[in-house]
Amino acid sequence: MTPGTAHSHGRDLPPLPGPGWAEALAEAEPARHAAWENVSGVLSQLCPRPERVFHAFDRGFADVRVVILGQDPYPTAGQATGLAFAVPPEVATPPTLRNILAELRDDAIASGWVDPAPDNGAHPQLVRTDLEHWASQGVLLLNSVLTCRVGESLAHERVGWQMFTAQVLRALCARKTPPVAVLWGRHAQALGRGLPWLATVESSHPSPLSARRGFFGSRPFSNVNAVLASQGQPPVQWIQPERAPHS
Question: pLDDT by residue (tens digit) across 114-126?
Fold first, then answer.
């Protein structure tokens, strides 16, 4: 078995799974290899699990319409999935994701996607916390640092992932139709600055420390759809149909 194949095991670098990525990111492979080599000695302590590190690349390169930038994975064991901000449905929802889902609810009500809050003042959760519903529609949920150690946020800030993810963003922005960028907080805004996005949707970060400084009320989901509509693209269905409340 050769390293880097689809059936590689152990410390071998997993391939980029979705169609078009390997070709689009050929020049980024040295950076990807170097970062993986720097974390390959601690795979048992990796967040997300090694086989999920490149999960954000499961869908095709040409299918990406929106990029939501995160910083690094959740450091709690069992939370990180390889998609920025997402967690498995069976685990507790972290505060940052709770705030994202709350803003989704408010944006959905203001946009008329769902009815106003029912008599008890509560809506059911409008999308699963794994956010696969978004990813399946071309929303790339990308952390700039793809791994960390269990219990240690930003442990891998200096292993080289940013060199790889910066090349991912440049490749996406070099396409005929670049994606829309959702830049929450200063880290994401610095990462996205200077790139020729189709448009950017920016606010403070949804973490509990900053969500009330501009994230709540920013309506990022309807703003993204407005940009897509201006380009003749279909909207992202941010709400899973079976979860939309009805009057």
Answer: 988 666 566 788 9
Radius of gyration, CA atoms only, the chain: 18
Q: Are strands 199-203 and 180-184 parallel, antiparallel or unpaired?
A: parallel
Is the CB of residue 165 less than 8 Å from the CB of residue 146? yes
Of 12, 58, 63, 72, the active-site residue reads 72
Annotation says 12 is catalytic: no
Q: How much is the pLDDT for 10?
A: 56
Tell me: cis bond preceding 89? Omega within 30 of 0 counts.
no
Q: Which regions of the chain are under pLDDT 70?
A: 1-10, 117-122, 243-247
Q: What per-residue confidence (pLDDT) applies to 118?
A: 66
Question: By the 8 A CB rule, do 156 and 72 touch?
Answer: yes
Mean residue pLDDT across the chain: 92
- Nearest one of 104, 74, 76, 99 to 86, comparing CA atoms: 74
